[in-house]
Amino acid sequence: MNRLKLVLPTPEYEEKLMDYKREFIENGDSMDGSAGLNNAETFEEWYSVFLDNLKEETVRKGLVPATTYMAISTDNGRLIGMIDIRHILNEYLLNYGGHIGYSIRKSERKQGYATEMLALALKECAKLNIKKVLITCDKENIASVKTMINNGAKIENEIPEGNRITQRYWITLD
């Protein structure tokens, strides 16, 4: 299962990140776990936010400190997915967002990458001393449910959120 490695974004990855963004926009997909890449006009704007959000002292208003990783293929260096680890939870994240958000580009889905990427992110959570990891998803997102369960997640409950139901799963780390 060593098909992926988690890498912190740097300016050298600008082209790969913008290509990742382009694929999500073209497919009309939700780009979760990308630290707002979908909303940034430029790489520089996004990278500035990414750097600020790494530390509590500089985190942007309304957000929590978080580390965003790129999941890079160990075979060909392709950016497969992105995953965001929130170091702490505010009330919204406790109910709806969780510690981790992630996405896999459409052209790379259904190959087990999300399960592997989440397993790698859980190792990073342990380094951050996050012992119980909350991950949430829309009840209809069967792929995400399977990804979480494959990594040992146990459902706690479901919370209505507008016209959807958010499922809350916990993974306890050793």
TrEMBL record:
- Domain named N-acetyltransferase: which ranges? 31-174
The domain of life for this entry's organism is: Bacteria
Q: Does the keyword Lyase apply?
A: no
What would be one Pfam family of this protein? Answer: Acetyltransf_3
Q: Which Gene3D superfamilies match?
A: 3.40.630.30
The coiled-coil regions, if any, are none
Alphabetically ordered keywords of this record: Transferase
Q: Which molecular-function annotations from GO does this UniProt entry contain? A: acyltransferase activity, transferring groups other than amino-acyl groups
Spell out the protein name for this chain.
Predicted acetyltransferase
Originating species? Clostridium amylolyticum
Provide the taxonomic classification.
Bacteria, Bacillati, Bacillota, Clostridia, Eubacteriales
